[in-house]
Write a structure and sequence with these properties.
InterPro entries: PQQD, PqqD_bac, PqqD_sf. One of its GO terms (molecular function) is quinone binding. About 35% of the residues lie in helices and about 15% in strands. The chain is of the alpha+beta class. Strands 1-2-3 form a 3-stranded antiparallel beta sheet, covered by helices on one side. A hairpin with a 2-residue loop joins strand 2 and strand 3. The longest helix has 13 residues. It is globular, with a radius of gyration of 14 Å.
Amino acid sequence: MSDPTPAPLPERPRLNRLFRLQWEEAQQAYVLLYPEGMVKLNLSAAEILKRCDGEHTVNELIAELEQAFGEADLRDPIEGMLRAAFEKDWIQ
């Protein structure tokens, strides 16, 4: 039986050095480039990953995004995206 408690997120997430986040004009979207390919990101995922610089804490990242988007209560979706990114090794 697996443990339902997810692994804790890094306190100050940063993009894995194997990945590069950049705007891709041909895709008209931000993408994550890595040696084996590319991941096209939606706007929300890109805005979250832009802030994964090893400087922002998770709480700072959430507060900044809530202010930028004029929304409250974004903790759950942001943490969900961070968990998915952590599981895919996009962030460390």
